Amino acid sequence: MLELKGHGEPAGPRRDLGAPHGGAVRGGGRKTWLEARHEELSRLGRTPSTQPYCLVIGGGQAGISLGAWLRRLSVLTLIVDKNPRPGDSWRNRYRSLCLHDPVWCDHMPYIPFPDHWPLFTPKDKMGDWLEAYSLVMELVYWGSTECKSARFDAARDTWEVTVIKDGADEISLYPKHLVLATGMSGMPNVPVFPGAQNFGGVQCHSSQYKDGRDWAGKLCVVVGSNTSAHDICADLWESGAAQVTMVQRSSTHVLRSDTMMSSPGFLLYHEGSKISTEDTDLIFASVPYKILHRSAIDITKSIAEVDAKFYDDLERVGFMHDFGDDGSGVLMLCLRRASGYYIDVGASELLIKGEIDLKSGVSLKEMKERSVC
After folding, report:
1. What is the pTM of this model?
2. CA-based, 20 to 30 A from 104: which of 148, 167, 234, 359?
3. DSSP alpha helices (H): ranges in the chain?
4. Domains (ranges, CATH) in the chain?
5. In the prediction, which pLDDT does 338 show?
């Protein structure tokens, strides 16, 4: 089911006129688009009669996509995010970050990326796209707004949500529906190592890491072996760090980007496919989650055969590799854990060549002033 008859989106022949035709009302009173837009932005969420029907906490690509769908259905929706601008969740990440999956897997609803868009989107370009998209889709987006509390009022059948806007205004919102779109990696998981308080060097979580050039000429240890760890190790090496060591505490699945894009299991989303992105989404969503891993196992087996030498080379340098808990590879790792994998865009080759040092099967026992053990 795509829509209810008589309640479809205002698209095609049902689109809004934009400029009302016919006799004008003498004395004015008819608002321009800009006047109506300013009124909406200034009133939504500000008075009891202009409460959002849906409040979305989190203004990344998921919150913005949902906001666009609801906007098209004329559902009063407010999106709030602690960052100042749409797209800041991407802009704030490390300098070298690019998406590891190809552009045809990342289209937003209604407005696809143009056909000249880079295959792998740089983070700042993605941030700008999300900001432009929010503007074009006429979303109501409160930046610099943090959700402090939320509770459901059963008597009124509404949520009561308190937000702090611009670090000063405390505003109470009363939506019928509350959506948390805070991301699968939105909250940093910061391990605690003995002696960390005594370490004389710089310590930072990957969410705080910005630019490998800050570590040029220095000895660097990266704890972890998933996507961010690989990206940061490669960025440090490229930026001239004196030594880069990856500490791999547990096994990780690695999938070569080139192999992923040419694998039959991923070709439905490929540019030039006879099936549209929207139909591909429906096909993918139609497979029950309980059996989704079966086809993923077959795809992963074929990838393991194609890249057998690559995996042998990784194991030769001591990298602990797996294909997921049941051999279903990157798809199910992403859906089940949102971790445990890396789509290789170059860092694996640096490990194989010894440009990045590797300590696998160990963790940090203790941090001292000038060393880690």
Report:
1. 0.90
2. 234
3. 33-43, 61-72, 88-91, 123-136, 227-238, 257-262, 277-285, 289-306, 308-316, 329-336, 347-352
4. 34-180 (3.50.50.60), 190-373 (3.50.50.60)
5. 87
